[in-house]
Amino acid sequence: MSFFEKVVQAKLRNNNVVDWYKKEFLDPNLTSEEIAINSGLDKKTINNMFNSA
After folding, report:
1. What is the 3-state secondary structure (H, E, C) of the chain?
2. Which pLDDT score is estimated for 35?
3. Buried b (16+ CB within 10 A) or exposed e, 1-30
4. Is residue 15 part of a domain?
5. Does residue 40 lie in a domain region?
6. pLDDT tens by residue, 1-53
7. What is the pTM of this model?
8. Does 1 reside within a domain?
9. CA torsion through residues 7, 15, 46, 36, sign
10. Which structural domain, as residue segments, surrounds residue 30?
């Protein structure tokens, strides 16, 4: 299922999309790579932002 399909389904269930997004896509149990992808960034960008590469 694609990201947009998940968003549409959440909206159809009358979930607050922002809260749903935070819960599902920024879950601390996800890997850092999954969180980066879900937030629209790649790990290199994050490393550059925080000078942690």
Report:
1. CCHHHHHHHHHHCCCCHHHHHHHHHCCCCCCHHHHHHHCCCCHHHHHHHCCCC
2. 82
3. eeeeeebeebeeeeeeeeebbeeebeeeee
4. no
5. yes
6. 787 787 788 778 876 778 878 888 888 898 888 888 878 877 777 777 777 65
7. 0.53
8. no
9. negative
10. 22-53
Give the Å distances, CA to CA, from 42 to 21, 32, 36: 18, 10, 6
The CB-side HSE value for 34 (13 A sphere, CA atoms) comes to: 10
- 47 assigned to some structural domain: yes
Q: How many CB atoms lie within 10 A of CB 36?
A: 17
Give me 37's structure tokens.
């992808």
Name the burial class of residue 31, with classes exposed (0-12), middle (13-18) and buried (19+) by CB atoms within 10 angstroms of its CB.
exposed
State how many domains the chain has: 1
